[in-house]
Design goal:
By secondary structure, the chain is an alpha/beta fold. α3 packs across α4 and α14 crosses α15. The protein has 15 helices and 13 strands. Helices cover 38% and strands 15% of the residues. The protein folds into two domains: 207 residues, P-loop containing nucleotide triphosphate hydrolases (Rossmann fold); 145 residues, P-loop containing nucleotide triphosphate hydrolases (Rossmann fold), CATH 3.40.50.300. It binds adenosine monophosphate (AMP). The site of adenosine monophosphate has 14 residues, from α3.
Length: 394
Amino acid sequence: MTFKDLKLIPPILKALAKENYSAPTPIQEQAIPAVLARRDLFGCAQTGTGKTAAFALPIIQLLSEQPVKPNARRPIRSLILTPTRELAIQIDDNIKIYGQYTRLRSAVIVGGVSQKAQEQSLEQGADILIATPGRLIDLMNQSLVDLRQIQILVLDEADRMLDMGFIHDMKRIIAKLPAQRQTLFFSATMPPEITKLVQTLLHNPVKIEITPVSSTAERIDQSVYFVDKENKLKLLNLLLQDRSIASALVFARTKHGADRIARGLNKANITAQAIHGDKSQNARQTALNNFKSGATRVLVATDIAARGIDIEELSHVINFNLPNVPETYVHRIGRTGRAGLSGVAISFCEYEEIPYLKDIEKLIRKPIPKVEDHPYPMVNTDPAAKPEKSPSRR
Ligand code: AMP
């Protein structure tokens, strides 16, 4: 199957050829014809499957085929809602690449940065708007954005939007859209709230399921180290002495934790930066760019900050803390091993995280191999024990 077989128009094919996309991914093969046929879509798929292009390409095609009145202000015809700023910016970057040979314009609306530039891009007119719910609501309340001409709505990472408490904002936004529209809904997981939303929002949707969450990451080499909390940083330092770890995305549970880990690594002369919600948008983007360019070797992130970040050729994901939601583990490790590459996912498990490990193993339906032989084996099996009771080694 080629992109040409999917009946994409020449300006899009040209952009894809320039990007060296040789063949559509499975989600693209299934989604593109359905969206072009104006069907509603429900995609159960996660980042890394090519889902952005799966919805962006047919949207660009449908909109660019409609005549626009010369000199008239462009109405926003497609709205893409995403949970995080990084994801919104990334989707916009992709849309600009895919649409570079069309006349379409896109704009991004995200929180954490000045509103002025966003107002200006709306004034200039955009065909496609990519937004996080909070800032979009702000602008709607100020009557700065008109959603009455929306034809296609995309809800991307809907499960994450629910997790982040955006459900009311989402509903308020959707209530302002024309009832007669096409809705494309993507979610990596299927909790009951998502099933309910799908039932209310979608009409006779085409359903596409790509790599169920429990069976993802078959290609990823996973391992777990049992280690006491206070020895985790030492173990991380030790592992990172291995220069074959070219780049590592380290997941921390908290913002403070992320900062602490980055500082600790810097002290050991390992280049690292933290990325989390307390950092300004500029600081986050800089950290991300430094990581992508290889200027920093380690990016330490919280789940929310890392959501949607697209890093090609990431070799290692390290879970400094295990997540309490097992699906999050699958999302995290899915950052490596993309596009057919193999990846490595290492997890540190302290005594209190053992139940999380069990939940994860249940979800992925296999045990994660334990690394027994390492210098900081877990000795602290009493959760009430004070850290200093644990003998420090080395
Ligand atoms: P996504 O799941 O949308 O985050 O996409 C994951 C990565 O795959 C992104 O870096 C895309 O640029 C890339 N990608 C998407 N579709 C293709 C394709 N058909 N061929 C090659 N790379 C692709």
